[in-house]
Specification:
Elements lengths: L2 E6 L5 H13 L4 E5 L6 H11 L4 E9 L4 H6 L6 E6 L7 H8 L8 E2 L5 H13 L3 H29 L2
Helix pairs in contact: 1-5, 5-6
The structure holds 5-O-phosphono-beta-D-ribofuranose.
5-O-phosphono-beta-D-ribofuranose binds next to strand 3.
Amino acid sequence: MKKVAVIMGSASDLPIAEKAIEQLESLDVPYEVHVLSAHRTPAEAASFADNAEGNGIAVIIAIAGKAAHLAGALAAHTTVPIIGIPAQGSDLGGMDALLSTVQMPPGIPVAAMAINGGKNAALFAAQILSLSDPELKEKLKTLRSDMTRSVLESNRTIEEKYNK
Ligand code: RP5
């Protein structure tokens, strides 16, 4: 199976990356992890994206906070789909990163997740990979039905407690 790359703009973004990694591992999706910054290591970030496809990477998850240009800067160098995660860690609570990630100019798309949305980024990456991987698709469907069962169980418990 092709890999997912999880890229964070700073080591301080690691807690968000770990949410994505945990989810990828639970689905047995192969991944690699790097710290690359659009601003502090622009040449290395560009080179990573230039070579991503040739290195067997099918989806890139890019996590960045503040003036979050990482996802867009990577997207400028590859047609490998980029999933951007805006990181919360700023005085503006992540709204800065959210808008920087989501407001890409026409022609260079980035799929923007919620602020700190590591889990959904991994699931979305897995959904992309599952287009050509029936086994992964089955795992994702099982995850959905497990989720449904769990919510219905909570509903039963709460209904029994309050609806007398
Ligand atoms: C962004 O600036 C990083 O992605 C991080 O979220 C934020 C702060 O970086 P550090 O100052 O913690 O390295 O580029």
